[in-house]
């Protein structure tokens, strides 16, 4: 155990899963799968290298769980929707386990913030018939084009109007999450994380300004999280009691970086209470800074509120870059486990560096670490990048 950071390097039990330290790798969008969603050699190398760096748990990038209901959100996004995807993820899971870490596959549905180029001419689906005012990430950007080696025009791609899911369709989408979870476990994952954060479909239900429903799936915090609860219940029925199920939550989204829940901590408390008897083993709070809850009347960190209200352990992400910050989040009660994102892009050995206690010249985050991360020569050659020839809409 690290003398400097005894809590950070102590084991933790999350539901049925025991993890050897309290460091998780946060889910990080990369768009490096084959065009059909199959994980690549480069993905195997990427995840294996970070597992070898001393992480306790890896939460994968957002992975679409089924082909129906416009689940896919990005070009070159990995899927867990068929046998080829399972085979690809099995190689990833095996490599992570061989290097001493646990891994859960994050299941996500893009909802109204899905790239129209992956929707097959169909409108996106959402909680309500709304339209995002944002645009697809990492388009219309010369720097991004350069690091992706994309030539020619690459225009900004905006989101089309979404249609509201019917109650019957909500149950069908939840069934798709359950089937994706079953395939994730078949691939060797230690469980799944349900993406209810960052602007995607479940977030669109949980967030009042995008959920205008007046039925049992809208109109109150309890109703707004009913869809997430349903997804958790169906996943638990599909994969049994021995695998971890986590729900990721946030106030902000990819098209709403300054988003805040109405009523601040009171809304968070209601969400936590509504999830207290859910099938989820843990919650995962995502933010730019977990200490900033964007609510002046009560400065309590949102993960602290959710932990107290739900009675569930919380993985906390945002504003944690080094060992002292991680230990402080754990000791304060704002986290049971920390999720580290951008620093691990640039420093795969983050856990070992922190544990050493030695001063270290941390590199500032740069998107090139997403596109061209350090590779493990045992799994793939460097610069083995996918060229998806992304179409112009």
Automatic annotation (TrEMBL):
This is NADH:flavin oxidoreductase. It comes from the Bacteria. GO terms for molecular function: FMN binding; oxidoreductase activity. Gene3D superfamilies: Aldolase class I. Residues 8-357 form the NADH:flavin oxidoreductase/NADH oxidase N-terminal domain. Keywords: Flavoprotein, Oxidoreductase. PANTHER family: BINDING OXIDOREDUCTASE, PUTATIVE (AFU_ORTHOLOGUE AFUA_2G08260)-RELATED. InterPro entries: Aldolase_TIM, NADH_flavin_oxidoreductase, OxRdtase_FMN_N. It comes from Paracoccus subflavus.
